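User: C-alpha cells for ATP-binding cassette domain-containing protein, please.
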Amino acid sequence: MRLANLSFRYARRAPWVLHGVDLDLPPGTVAEVTGRNGAGKSTLLRLLAGTTPPTRGRVTGRPPVVGYAPEIFPVEQPFTVIAYLSRMAAVRGLTPTSIDPWVDRLGMAALLDVPLRDLSKGSAHKVGLAQALLAPPGLLILDEPFSGLDAQARAELPGIVEEVAAAGGIVVVSDHQNGLTGRPALARLHVGDGTVIRMDHDVLTSAAPGTAVIEILVDAGDAEAVTRKLQADGYQAVIRGVRTEGNEAR
Ligand SMILES: Nc1ncnc2c1ncn2[C@@H]1O[C@H](COP(=O)(O)OP(=O)(O)OP(=O)(O)O)[C@@H](O)[C@H]1O
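Assistant: Done. Predicted C-alpha cells:
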C-alpha cells in the first residue's frame, strides 16, 4: 500500500494537517504512529483506512478488507452488542459464528445483551475492536487500541496483531500506551509538522552498544546516492523519510 504526495486539511482555508506525505507500507508491516496531541495521528489513520478522502494526493494498493477501530466507538446506535456484531458480520458476508472467537478472546460474553449506549468506555472499545477483526483484515487500523482495555484484552492484542501481520496484513496502530513496544520489527511513523517520518525500530535498536546513531538532512534528490555512498563506506545507512515541503530527506 502506498501514499503518494498525500495532503489533507479539514476546510478550504484551514491549515494543512498533513502535507506531501509519501509512505510505503508493504504487506506484513506493523507500524506504530507517534506524535504529540493534535499532530494528525487520527487523521492519518482515517486517510489510511479510507474513511476520509485526501484533499490531494493518492492512496494506492489499499487491501480490499479494511478493519478500522476508531479511538472512540460510536455507541449511539439502537442495538445490543450481539445485534450490532451480527449485523456487522452480515454486512461482511460472514455467518454469526464469526463473532464467537472475538467474544472469547476479548472477554465479551457478559456484554452480548447489553445495549451499546449502556456500555462502559472499555467495553465499547472492545466492540469496536471486535467489529474491525470479524473478517480477516488485509489492513488493520487501530486508534489507541489499548486505551481502557482490561488485562485480558490487553494481553490478547499483541498476539492478534501478529496474526494479522503473519497472514500478510498491514497493521497501523496509534498508541500512546506503547503496547507494541518491544516487537522486533516495529515501524514507527512519527507525525509532526504536517509530515510523516518513518523510523524503523530495528534500525535504531540494532546499533551495537557504543555506536552513535546520527541523523543527517540532505537534498531529497540526493538521498539515494548519499545513502549508497555511506553504505559503501561501511556505515549502516537508511532513508528515514522525505520532507516534500523542505525538499529534504533524512
Ligand atoms: N473534524 C475535524 N474538523 C476540524 N479540525 C479537526 C477535525 N479533527 C481533527 N481536527 C484538527 O486536526 C488536527 C489533527 O487532529 P488529530 O485528531 O488527527 O490529532 P492526533 O494526533 O490524533 O491527536 P491526539 O493525540 O490528541 O488524539 C488538530 O489540529 C485537530 O484540531
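User: Anything notable?

Assistant: The chain has a mean pLDDT of 89.
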